[in-house]
Design brief:
Layout lengths: L5 H13 L3 H13 L6 H14 L2 H13 L6 H13 L3 H10 L5 H13 L3 H13 L6 H14 L2 H13 L6 H13 L3 H10 L5 H13 L3 H13 L6 H14 L2 H15 L5 H13 L3 H9 L7 H14 L2 H14 L4 H13 L3 H14 L7 E6 L2 E6 L8 H17 L15 H9 L2 H12 L6 E5 L5 H14 L3 E4 L4 E5 L2 E2 L6
Parallel strand pairs: 3-4
Antiparallel strand pairs: 1-2, 1-3, 4-5, 5-6
Helix pairs in contact: 1-2, 1-3, 2-3, 3-4, 3-5, 5-6, 5-7, 6-7, 7-8, 7-9, 8-9, 9-10, 9-11, 11-12, 11-13, 12-13, 13-14, 13-15, 14-15, 15-16, 15-17, 16-17, 17-18, 17-19, 18-19, 19-20, 19-21, 20-21, 21-22, 23-25
């Protein structure tokens, strides 16, 4: 196509990008330059999208240099494409520098930067930028809210999420499939599964993603029966489940201990819907069997898999070994995990904790030494609570919070009341070989207890307290929170790395099956 003009070249390159043929788009772009046709801003924006699809950072940098040499960087669409390219290539700091220097921004610019932060897990930065956007009177659109709602979900920022929902209603924005599904996910992950269901029921149109999100929401809250009831309704109206739907259903069965139903759905995937189970489906089944103590069956399932088990599958079995104290099987499982993910410090920590819980302190110490020698670090436990539209974060033994003295004083008062009510600290969950008194002190300052004490001090009596933890809640904290909920007459809603726990009147929604 040597005589083709710029419009035709651009159309062809764009066609490749839109159809997912990013490599072909880059090849054609290079042919265009060699043919003597000089790319314009439209071509630059399109070819940067191709680089973003591929994660081709070096190619993207070369195109960026071409843009600077040819003074095309003042075009807002080019700037937006550069932000998206750098973000999708994992260079969000570079994207932010470009965003800050843009002479002109539009809503797409803000959306691209917010999406960039969200894509790398910087949910707090995404929310901060969204609020800045509104302060500057830049009006969010559908893409904005669909991008920022997952950030609220990640942080458990219910107040922020509700504010965005109010904005959607106030602007008369249609509750389309994308917005409705994002709201379902946000409310479910912020502990409001009933409101998530209200949104689901109010949606004029739903697709399989919407149904899967609602089923998943029920599952993470331990409402396994509601999840499978909704799944049955979905099938009855002719919505065909996909791979994600079955992950949601199987996970719901696992959290609720619905063994018979889980086995049935796993079997029907391939039999009735021609969906071959993937690694995540097997991980759900291993988790289901493992939680129920059927460790040998879980191991047999792994060894019979037609595909290579990944770290998620073996990790589910290692977690089950921790629950049931089977350190011998844990040793065997850990070898697979260390081979698959030698940089996965969390698996070393889990094996060390299994040894410590069994009183095998020397073995626990050896694993920690291996971690140190390899330069591996454990993820510190961290709990979050949203109060007055601000996210407050706590780590174990935290004394950096400005309200620390009041928080520890409140905890001391609570512990006195808890012990009078029959609470006995479970020092088995202190995985260090120290004296009992020190173990009690270490339990006292776990991050979730600090977050809850802060919440009690800074919210109105009787209102629910919602916290999010990045790791799994420990057994002692689970027991302690039941006592606190009864003493304070508060519902305490906690999302850990696995599921939700709703504590009320001294009981937990999980029924101690977690």
């Amino acid at each position: 196509m040597p005589t083709a003009d710029l419009v035709l070249w651009n159309a062809m390159i764009n066609g490749y990008v839109l159809n997912g043929h990013a490599n072909d788009a880059l090849i054609l772009f290079n042919r265009m330059k060699k043919s003597g046709v000089k790319p314009n801003s439209v071509a630059m924006a399109t070819v940067l999208s191709a680089c973003a699809q591929l994660g081709a950072l070096q190619q993207g940098r070369r195109i960026h240099h071409y843009i600077l040499r040819n003074r095309l960087d003042s075009d807002v669409s080019v700037g937006n494409s550069l932000i998206a390219m750098y973000s999708k290539c994992g260079r969000v700091e570079d994207a932010r520098q470009l965003f800050n220097k843009m002479p002109e921004r539009n809503v797409v610019s803000w959306n691209a930067m917010i999406a960039g932060y969200a894509s790398v897990g910087y949910a707090d930065e995404a929310l901060r930028l969204f609020n800045q956007m509104r302060l500057l009177d830049v009006e969010p659109n559908y893409s904005t809210v669909v991008t920022v709602l997952p950030a609220c979900a990640h942080l458990g920022a219910l107040q922020e999420g509700r504010s965005i929902h109010d904005y959607i209603k106030g602007k008369g924005m249609e509750l389309d499939v994308s917005v409705g599904t994002a709201l379902i996910d946000m409310y479910a992950k912020c502990g409001c599964v009933e409101i998530a269901r209200q949104v689901f029921d109010s949606m004029p149109t739903r697709n399989v993603v919407s149904w899967s999100a609602m089923i998943s929401g029920y599952g993470t809250h331990g409402h396994g029966k509601d999840a499978i009831t909704l799944f049955s309704q979905m099938l009855q109206i002719g919505v065909k489940p996909n791979e994600i739907t079955f992950i949601s259903v199987l996970s719901a069965c696992s959290h609720a201990g619905l063994m018979r139903e889980g086995l049935q759905y796993f079997d029907c995937m391939s039999r009735d819907y021609c969906i071959a189970p993937g690694a995540k489906h097997y991980a759900c089944m291993v988790d289901l069997l493992g939680r129920a103590g059927r460790l040998n069956e879980a191991y047999e399932l792994i060894t019979s898999m037609p595909l290579e088990p990944d770290a998620g599958v073996w990790g589910a079995l290692l977690g089950a070994c921790r629950i049931h104290g089977n350190f011998k099987l844990a040793e065997h499982v850990a070898k697979h995990l260390f081979s698959l993910k030698p940089e996965g410090g969390g698996y070393y920590v889990l094996l060390s904790n299994i040894y410590a819980a069994a009183g095998r302190w020397d073995d626990a110490a050896k694993v920690r030494t291996i971690m140190k020698d390899k330069g591996l670090k454990m993820t510190p436990a961290r709990s979050f609570i949203e109060v007055n539209n601000g996210i407050h974060s706590f780590v174990v033994g935290d004394e950096l919070h400005p309200h620390s003295k009041k928080i520890y004083a409140k905890l001391e008062a609570l512990f006195k009341q808890m012990k009078e009510a029959g609470y006995v600290p479970d020092t088995n969950f202190v995985l260090h070989d120290v004296e009992e008194e020190m173990k009690e002190h270490m339990l006292f300052s776990h991050s979730e207890k600090l977050a809850i004490a802060f919440g009690i001090l800074n919210t109105s009596p009787g209102t629910p307290i919602r916290i999010t933890k990045n790791l799994r809640v420990c057994g002692d904290c689970h027991t302690a929170i039941k006592f606190i909920s009864n003493i304070e007459r508060r519902e305490i809603i906690m999302r850990d790395a696995i599921r939700f726990h709703h504590f009320k009147d001294g009981l937990c929604s999980c029924g101690d099956y977690w």
